[in-house]
Amino acid sequence: MKKLFKSSALAMTAALMMGASGNALAHKVGIVDMQAIYKQLPQMAKIEQTLQAEFAERRQEVEKLQGDLRFEAEKFKRESTTMSEEQKEELRGKIQNMQKALAEKGRPLEQDIKLRQNQELAKVQSMIIEAIESVAKKGNFDEVKVKDTTIYFNPDKVTDLSDKVVEVVSKK
Questions:
Q1: 149: helix, coil or strand?
Q2: For 80-131, what is each residue's pLDDT tens digit?
Q3: Averaged pLDDT score across all residues of the chain
Q4: Which one of 58, 127, 132, 149 has the fewest beta carbons within 10 angstroms of its own beta carbon?
Q5: Which CATH number is 75's domain given?
Q6: Count of alpha carbons within 13 Å of 71, Cβ hemisphere only?
Q7: At what angle do helices 162-170 and 85-138 cross, to 10 degrees?
Q8: How far apart are CA 166 and CA 38, in angstroms?
Q9: Structure-model confidence comparison of residues 27 and 38, the more confident one
C-alpha cells in the first residue's frame, strides 16, 4: 500500500510539474497574412500609380519600338517572296537594328522599374514590420508568425493580426 501511495504521489507531482511547465511555456501567438496585407494597403496602389507615371515616357518609347519591330517583321514575312535580295538584306538589317535598340532600351527599363519597385516595397515593408511589432506589443503577443511560412496553426489558439496591421499601416 505504501508503494502504491508513493508511486501515486510521485506520478501526481510529476503531472503537476508538467502542467505548470506547460503553462509556463504557453504563450500568445499571432499570425499575419502578408499577401492579404499588401493587397489591402492603399500605399500599394499609390506606388503603382507613381511608378506608372515615372516610367510612362520610357515605356511608350519601348512599346512604339516593339510595334515598329512587329510591323517590319510582318512586312518581311508578307513581302519577302516578291523582294529582291538587296531589299531583303536591307529590311533584315533594319529589323536587327531595331531589335538591338529594343534590347538597349528595354532591359535597362525593366531593371530600373524593378529597382524602384524594390525601393518602394522596402519602405512599405518596414512600415508593415513596425505595425506588426506595435500591434503585437499592444496585444501582449509573445510571437507573431507569417502565415505563408507556417505549415500548421490552430485557428482557435492563434490570432490573425492582418486586419489590425492593415489598419495601422493605412493611417500612415
A1: helix
A2: 888 889 998 999 999 999 999 999 999 999 999 999 999 999 999 999 999 9
A3: 84
A4: 149
A5: 3.30.910.20
A6: 7
A7: 100
A8: 8
A9: 38
